[in-house]
């Protein structure tokens, strides 16, 4: 399932908990205050990663063989 593109009307990242990256170089940010994980791909853009039931993420782990959240 692909993430939802984030546009100018969407929330800013607030209270980032931690950072992680995947093997392709994308950066993942745990957005603690907005209950989401934000993905910043190498080629630009920003996506909110769909994770059901996420509350105040404080840490991330990205498996080396697959994209994870």
From TrEMBL:
What name goes with this protein? NHL repeat-containing protein
Lineage summary: Bacteria, Bacillati, Actinomycetota, Actinomycetes, Kitasatosporales
Q: What's the domain of life for this entry?
A: Bacteria
Q: Which organism is it from?
A: Streptomyces pakalii
């Amino acid at each position: 399932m692909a993430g939802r593109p984030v546009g100018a009307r969407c929330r800013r990242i607030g209270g980032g908990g931690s950072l992680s990256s995947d093997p392709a170089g994308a950066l993942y940010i745990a957005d603690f205050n907005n209950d989401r994980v934000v993905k910043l791909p190498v080629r630009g853009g920003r996506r909110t990663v769909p994770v059901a039931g996420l509350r105040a993420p404080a840490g991330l782990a990205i498996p080396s063989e697959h994209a994870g959240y």
